[in-house]
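so my prof wants the structure for this chain in the tokens format not the other one, which i didnt know existed until like an hour ago. anyway here's the sequence
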Amino acid sequence: MSTDVESDQQTLEFEDGDSFEEFGGPDTVFGTADFDDERPLRPINWNLLTADEAFDEWHDLDAWVDWLRHTYGLPPTVIPPLWHRHDELIWELSALHTHWLNAYDPDGSPSAPLAWHRDFAEARNRLREWVSLCGTRLDRDRPTRQTAWPGEAPYEPAPEVEIVDRRADFTAFVAEDLAARRAIEDAVRFAA
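here's what i got, hopefully its the right format
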């Protein structure tokens, strides 16, 4: 945080010196769903989101995760570049994001941020464990390995892929997710 001496206005800055205003303000950095006073804060159930809801939530969560990793200097052993390709990381980060929104709500308890930081410390330990188990890293990724139970067909391990462009991968991933959700919505509409 820096303060403009002439106006006495504080400006939140990123590590590299960029500020919110350079990126279009808080709505652009964090997304619009985070600042929607019309919509009540609620947990995100990724299994039940429509394509339109998922679009907003993906982009808001991605912007917040990017802010989080920069603000707290988190290494890829806590938040890897392709976190969005691992369900266990999506659910944890999404819950942490909702908790953060609640903790920093202007009408919230003044002690809520302290509770969030305590829970964030616990969440970092879980994130480290899941990143280690799922096998994603800074420069390589593979799907989380699954164990077949007795009577199930064995899972074929997927190969690692090199991470070339994280942003392009996220965009492609979200497009695939939205297409799958729209196909389900169309099937439900057609069946009704």
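also thought this was worth mentioning. Residues 1-5, 7-12, 31-35 have pLDDT under 50 and may be disordered.
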